[in-house]
Design brief:
By secondary structure, this protein is mostly helical.
Length: 53
Amino acid sequence: MLTNDELINIRGGGITATLLNSISRLVETLLNLGQIVGSSIRRSVSKKVCKIS
């Protein structure tokens, strides 16, 4: 078993799969928001809106 001093000196990895996954999801969410806002602006400027049946 490790002593308390050895446990204090343990250093974890800098970049983990969880960190990369969260960054990936953040970028994906920001791109989706940009697409939604851009489409909304384009539709409002061109005055073309699809009818909802």
